[in-house]
Amino acid sequence: MDVGFIGLGKMGLAMARNIAAAGHRVRAWNRSPSPDAAAAGLALVASPRDALQADVIFTMLSDNLAIREVLLAGDVLRGARPGAVHVVTATISVDFAAELAAHHARIGLGYVSAPVFGRPDVAAAAQLTIVAAGAAAAIDKVQPLLDVIGRKTWRFGEDPRQANAVKLAGNMMIAMAVEAMAEATALTGGYGIGPKAFFDVVIGTLFAGRSYESYSAKIASGDFEPGFKMALGLKDLRLATAAAEKSGKRLPQLDAVRTRMAQAVDAGLGDKDWSAIAAHAGG
Questions:
Q1: Both 131 and 214 in a single domain?
Q2: Catalytic residue positions?
């Protein structure tokens, strides 16, 4: 299959590499030079319009604004190959997902929201968890490609916003788990208990699970090199807040964690992994 891929950050490059390794031709574009792209088996192209000349186009861009600038400005999407499907794998707002769905319908281009759960190492291992929503025929067309980048695809209906709501809620829960661990280590640290000793008890008994295991290790080691930058985590918490307000819900715990993460970003931790909120908590 001819595949276009736009956005070759750590996540995007790993995903595009796995698609190419599965035997698909991948024409890729990034806003900045990507020296690793050729080694990944990708055919670099000169513009987003060139990447759109494919059966399926993936975008892994950082936020609403990046997608708007790259694909909506200048009506770039109208240049896509007829019959193509566009798969947006990034975390975007539910309102923007609705806008994208309407725009794609107007220009006759297939659209699937398929945000992914997983850090760059998970993407490299093709073990992403994918949540997808959109027309069933469009998801069916892209499913073979989703199968080579993830361990499972969960389908959430015809409305693309549903996949984005699931992704925002999932990221919200991860942030809440990280904050809980940060505060727990702050409390126990005040009594001379190191984070590793504490996590050996609770992660092995009460709180087993991928998020707890992954982020407890980072907190215990003090290794806050970013797998997912805190500034992006804060962006997602703000999107979750907006989505909740849109549906008439107020989520007090989300408000509290978002405020804490905003304080940590203001303290200069925005480029660190979002688990660095533990350092801000004094854990």
A1: no
A2: 167
Q: What is the pTM of this model?
A: 0.93
Q: Report the 10 Å Cβ neighbour count for 259.
A: 11
Please write the tens of the pLDDT for every residue from 47-65. Answer: 999 999 999 999 999 899 9
Same domain, 188 and 209: yes
**184: domain CATH number?**
1.10.1040.10
Q: From CA 93, how far away is CA 107, in angstroms rounded?
A: 21
Helix (H) or strand (E) segment spanning residue 200? helix 195-202
102, exposed or middle or buried, with CB in 10 Å at 0-12, 13-18, 19+?
A: exposed
Report CA-CA distances (Å) from 219 to 122, 130, 264. Answer: 19, 26, 15
- Whether residue 87 contacts residue 59, with contact meaning beta carbons closer than 8 Å, is answered with yes
In this structure, are 151 and 173 located in the same domain? no
E strand intervals along the chain: 2-6, 25-29, 43-44, 56-59, 85-88, 110-113, 116-117, 128-134, 150-155
Three-class secondary structure of residue 51 per DSSP? helix
CB atoms within 10 A of CB 27: 20
What are 129's strand-pairing partners?
Answer: 117, 152
Residue-wise pLDDT tens digits, 10-19: 999 999 999 9
Pair 147, 177 in one domain: no
